[in-house]
Amino acid sequence: MNKRQRKKQTYKKYIREIFAGYEKMITDKTIQELQFSYLKETTFLTRDDEGVIHFLTKEK
Predict the structure, then answer these.
(1) DSSP state of 4
(2) Cα 51 from Cα 58, distance rounded (Å)
(3) Contact 42, 35 (CB under 8 A)
(4) CA dist 18 to 1, 28, 35, 40, 51, Å?
(5) What are 26-42's pLDDT values in tens digits?
C-alpha cells in the first residue's frame, strides 16, 4: 500500500473516532472532554455547563 492510501485510511479512522466519541458523549452525560489527534491537528470534544457538546480543532 502506498503512502497516500495509508494517509487516507488513517484520516478516515480519525474521523470515525471523532464521531464515535461524539455518540459516546451523547449517551454518557458524565464524559466532559475527549481528545483526538491526527498529524498536526488535535480535535477536542468538550461539554459546557449546560451540557452542550462543542467541537474545537487546533493545529499543533
Answers:
(1) H
(2) 22
(3) yes
(4) 25, 15, 8, 16, 18
(5) 999 999 999 999 999 99
Residues 6+ apart with CB under 8 A from 33: 44, 45, 46, 47
What's residue 60's pLDDT?
81
Report whether pLDDT(1) > 80. no
Concatenating the DSSP letter of every residue in 9-58 gives HHHHHHHHHHHHHHHHHHH-TT--EEEEEETTEEEEEEE-TTS-EEEEEE
In eight-state DSSP terms, residue 3 is H
- Rounded to two decimals, the pTM is 0.86
